[in-house]
Known about the structure:
Helix 1 packs parallel to helix 10, helix 2 (about 45-55) packs across helix 10 (about 305-320) and helix 10 packs antiparallel against helix 11 (about 325-355). It is built from 13 helices and 17 strands. By secondary structure, the chain is α/β, with parallel strands linked by helices.
Amino acid sequence: MKEILIAGGGIGGLAAALALAQKGRKVRVLEKAAEFGEIGYGIQMGPNVSRMLERLGVLKTLEAAAVFPDALIFVDAVSNQELTRIALGTAFLKRFGHRYFVIHRRDLHGGLLEACKQRSEVVLESSRGVESFAQKSDAVTVVCENGVVYEGAALIGADGLWSPTRQAVIGDGAPRVAGHFVYRGVVPDDQIADRSRAGAMTIWGGPDLHLVQYRLQAGAVMNNVATIASRRFLRGEQNAGAPDELEEIFAGVHPGVRDNLRYVSRERNWVLHDREPAVNWTLGRVTLLGDAAHPTLQYLAQGAQMAIEDALVLAGKVAAAGEDYNRAFLAYQRERLNRTARVVLSSRFFGEWFHVGGGARDLRNELALQRDPDNPWEADWLYKGIEVDGNL
Ligand SMILES: Cc1cc2nc3c(=O)[nH]c(=O)nc-3n(C[C@H](O)[C@H](O)[C@H](O)COP(=O)(O)OP(=O)(O)OC[C@H]3O[C@@H](n4cnc5c(N)ncnc54)[C@H](O)[C@@H]3O)c2cc1C
């Protein structure tokens, strides 16, 4: 059997390589960067993805590097009043089957990378930016930026937000700019002044902003993420999302909340994008996975988790379809299109929910205060996870 080619060695590409290797398929991962790696910040992992990581055989390793917050807490950034929480104790574990954890991205990516290196079926190649591909009846030929050519049985585009594979498959141009900007910072935990919620994953929501805080690396450091919905962007002005706009938008919140801005670096920001849900990700023997297929805003913290779910479903369909990759990929997308569309659209909604002001904020706060913290039924569709190969 010819090997399967994967464009992109991020979380999605590596999860796909591992899942396919477990099904006995040979895989070659072609990564554009000079080295396989991830950025130095945290990432949240819900119980839906733990099921997948367990199947990939990496959950124990990752949990050893993870932090388990005691609650997900939502706080009004203007008043600094806690509005609601999801307790992450035994009732949560019983309901969803796994705990909620947060982890350094390098530990997550590194755990997947190490597991791939242990598999003889997986070949990992860096400095291999995939530029184009061509198909014939029984193979896909991939051309990389440096002129190196590979022939494989199929190609999986796990090449991220700006995926060239997507452009060849769907051709829908650049992703949508949300007008939201993110500033991040990881600082030693003992520098954090307000320790009242330090054991939790806390989100403060305020007009056109929110702030996220949780501990990483056995509690040694605190991960801080400040997001603004840029007013300058809406007005079509220059310097949208610049550091002075971060200060400007946070000027209206409680001083104790605003104080947390000192933990985020002004040196870099991330411009957030997503896409409208697609109706197809597949062209012949080529399909898409992860952000290449369904980039989402981070407000449900599910982008990477969806990529990992994709990987397991994809591998199951490939194993079931023998060498009929088109059939496998169509079956894969049938199972994934609506679930990932729901994440993309719900994430937009949650962004609004975090960022509202005026009367909408009053309504949000009233509804949030009415929630039962021990009955997070709203998360059932997401956290209860998916079936893979007919099993939960
Ligand atoms: C602020 C923020 C917070 C987030 N928080 C969370 C969270 O808490 N939980 C969560 O689940 N998700 C979160 N996400 C989303 C998550 O980071 C992404 O969904 C996830 O990283 C997507 O993984 P991927 O492998 O599909 O794409 P990527 O991580 O983008 O990986 C793509 C890989 O492909 C490579 N590549 C690019 N072009 C080519 C090419 N032509 N050829 C070969 N290789 C190529 C890249 O170098 C990269 O290694 C967050 C996102 C943001 C912006």
